[in-house]
Give the backbone structure.
Amino acid sequence: MKEIVVLSGKGGTGKTTMMGSLAVIVPDKIIADCDVDAADLHLLLEPEIKEKHDFVSGVEAEVIPDKCTGCGTCVELCKWEAITLDETAYVEPLDCEGCGVCAHFCPEEAIMLKDKHCGYWFKSETPYGPFVHAQLGIGEENSGKLVSLVKNKAKEWGEELGKKWVIVDGAPGIGCPVIASLSGAHAVLLITEPTPSGLHDMGRVLELTAHFKIPTFVCVNKWDLHPEGAKAIEDHCDKNNVAVIGHLPYDPCVVKAMVQGKPVVSLFADSPVSVAIKEVWQKLSSILS
Ligand code: SF4
Ligand code: SF4
């Protein structure tokens, strides 16, 4: 089973358009949405949830009111100002960082640290194949653990089903969630746009994938809106021995499909952007095969 991670240096470059379309056209695959901070692939793939699991990560403090004497020690010690005091102390869960200082120094042992429920992960079926995805709780930060979990579950399930490909929607940027989504990947498809910020952010991702020695292929979205910008991207890729395997044109069908909540290749199969996306997949699959 081969794993392809779709990345973008930043949000809004067309990664979801590409992912939604790959979900339709790649045969014999499992799909994983590792962009858990801004998960949106489910909006296009109409998943029917088959399994829902808790995602627990870290701890949070909770006061046992019957034991608390209201001495105020924990309020003074909490650097995140997560504790308020009335007659007894109260920890605001959204502000608690789980450092454990309050529990350690409470003279009455009135504070316990309990597992923190941070969200859910799902195994779903879609019209396009099996899909593993997640939902972070409100205010929860993604440390990369949930990304690793989603990816590993997708790989396990894909192996069980005998799939040939794992197609992973990675997080934007170059932080911890992206690094987690790259682990074990056979190739990266990097979507960028022909702007100075697109070039800059692409450069940072290329440094990251070069560091991890993962073959990376670039696709320039809306290249025809700024051909000089697209040329600058090609020049940068040439210098760094990175292949540019796709140029997607600006195509109003992308927005029309998005409004209807469908991948563009499923609604407008012969539109210019759909044809270009199919060519990208043909190139990528033949290189990886
Ligand atoms: S340190 Fe313990 S006893 Fe004192 S206010 Fe906080 S929870 Fe209550
Ligand atoms: S665990 Fe740390 S952050 Fe949370 S309430 Fe206690 S001292 Fe504050």
The chain has a mean pLDDT of 94.
